[in-house]
Amino acid sequence: MYSTSGVLFLTLVLSATLVNGMKLPNTRCLCIGARKDSIHPNRIEKLEVFPMSPKCDRLEIVVTLKETNEKLCLNPDSKQVKRIVGRMIQKRYSNFSFYL
User: Fold this and answer.
1) Which residues are the signal sequence here (predicted)?
2) What is the CATH number of domain 26-93?
């Protein structure tokens, strides 16, 4: 009796551990399909960076355009996109003073 319930309990615990450790397929990513490699920084109203998560296994960068309020996905591996993100972060935090 104890061995059967012990084996059943151990099986359930291992199954739950495996399911929690598995990544889900890319069903929840915001950026599906093609991504832009470049965009003029003056056209950007808002920049959002979404890190990898259990629901999406890649970094996503989404910008909202000033003129049309359209959302576009940018390629996070593009040199220009990396430069734009770096400059926007510097611009945002340039007015702050950090004290250690």
Assistant:
1) 1-21
2) 2.40.50.40
